[in-house]
Amino acid sequence: MRNGGGANLPRLEAAIIGAGPAGAMAALSLKRSMPNSNVHLIERLDEGKYPRYHKMCGEGISRKGLELLDIDYDKFVVNRISRAIEHWPGGIDIETALDGLIIDRPGLLNALMEEFRSRGGEIIRGNLHDIDITRKGVRSKLSDGSTLTTDYLVGADGSRSLVREKIFGEQDIDLIWTEQYVLKGNGPRDAIEFFYDERYKGGYRWSFPNGENTRIGFPKGTDAAPGDALEMHRRAIPIGTVKRLVLGGICLVGDAAAQANPLTFGGLRTAFTAGWMAGEAIAREDLGSYQDLWRSSPYADPIFKRGYDMICAMDNEQLRVSVEPFRKGYTGARATLAMLRQPKYLQLYRSFERSMEFGW
Question: 12-303 is classed in which CATH architecture?
Answer without folding.
Answer: 3-Layer(bba) Sandwich (3.50)
